[in-house]
Amino acid sequence: MGISMAFPPEDFDLFSFRRAVLGLAVFISFVILRIIGSAIYNLYSHPLSHVPGPFFSRASNILNTLLARNGGIAPWLQAAHEKYGDVVRVAPNEVSFISGEPAWQDIYGFHRGLYATPINGTDNIIISNEADHSRGLVGLLVGMLVSRLHEQVEGKYPVVDITRRYNHTTFDTITDLTFGEPLYCLRDKDNHPWVSMIFESLKAARLMMAARRFSAFVYIDKIMGFFIDEEILKRRRAEFSNLVSHKKNGVLALTKGRNGVERNNSAHSWKRNNCDDPFGLYVSCLDQLARYTKVVEEVRGRFGGLVDITIEKVNKLVCLLATLQETLRYCPPGPTGFARIVPQGGDIVSGIYVPEGASVYMSQHTANHSKRNWTDPGTSTPERSLGDPKPFSFRLRNCLSKNLAYAEMRLIAAKVLFSFDLELGEESREWLKDQKAFLVWEKLVLMVKLHPVQR
Predict the structure, then answer these.
(1) What is the model's pTM?
(2) What is the CA angle 104-109-115, rounded to 5?
(3) Which fold has domain 48-452?
(4) Which of 5, 192, 278, 330 has the fewest beta carbons closer than 10 A?
């Protein structure tokens, strides 16, 4: 009797529903087994298994990635450090520190081999500008800011979004220093397209960084991309490219006559500085500043008019500087820290061995709100011993534009407080609590009512 050797069998159907379901079940089983196996390895055999942290964070990147993408990472980090201590494993290959000076030295100090990884593979720097030129420019633009605020009050619109006005000033300042021409936000009383592009790019960068931790989000983002109008994206890219080309040509023509100010046509090199908005945070604490009327008295008692207020003189206002410094502690510009990768061979960070390839950073917001580092950290108290909150990173990779940021915030605070009494709008009482953290805080509308000072 002959045996049929037909292949494939006559009843074989490669695309049958049953086989499709079976194949899907096998694939899902493989994925689940891989996730379980990876979790077991991360929990018990990973080189960082000795570092404490939340169970799901040690087991998988999913939780940390979700929090990073929805902006809720800052309060979660704070809660994790309160429970587990100064050193917390916040992802299988990522460690957060809040142990003050030792961690700052070990992660960001000159002698360390730790390095940063750029988001898109291209290195970038934050602008450094020539000091004397920037002082004069900052003074002129802050004066224009005060004039615009007076115009709004005189036009019977005394309630303003102070964050928007501050952004106009900082973007005009840094683009003039960078490209030789401002964006004219103050002149036009409106945002330039670059302003929204910069903030959107910061958020997108954070989402890209988060997606690296858990590759499934890369595919999710690609699927979501199918629902975005590609023509709109192409048009926005073309508009941005044209703007950059225009500014770059202006820079080349002005390079020799602008006091040697460094020219850098990378928007990334200056967007970080423009998002440091401590004055907005300072205003948001107006309900607490009733105790600190000395700040207003100090400013108005020291100067006879706006023209007398200069950066050099403002730097001698002890109460004002203490209040702004405390604001930087209370809500630092970079809430989650700047990650560094441990080099080959591993290293000791704040007394803890960290293997090569792991990501480490100081969680600034959490460190600044930890009872291990501060007395009553949840209250804004300028009288406290300020120490050094280091809002602009540290040493080798310190923020090169921090002097410009300090000059802006101090001069704006002095001139605005000299000119106006400020009243926080009821709709902005929870402004600090409602912000989400990406690379920087996603700032909301901050409504303040202006009352011109009568002299």
Answers:
(1) 0.73
(2) 100
(3) Cytochrome p450 (1.10.630)
(4) 5
